[in-house]
Design brief:
Blueprint: H1 9-26, H2 31-56, H3 61-72
Helix pairs in contact: 1-2, 2-3
Length: about 90
Amino acid sequence: MPCFSVKSLPAFALTLALSAALSVAHAQHTDKETKEDVLRHRAMAAAHEAAAKCLESGKKPDVCIAQLQAACKGLAVGKYCGMKHAH
């Protein structure tokens, strides 16, 4: 189970932005599909921001990860909302 760190948030934001840019550049999407991708990326970013705030509040990582998983259900790949990081 990964541990989240507030220090890793800027790196996550950069990774997310680059991934989004590369994903859009790589595949030919219709305008509608691109707009849907943007909304999904924003929803995933919001879920990760909420997980960071949860950890900052002093809650246990298990609680915060459960909230992240609930927020991302049907939105992203994998049980870590499309992202798993190392420390």
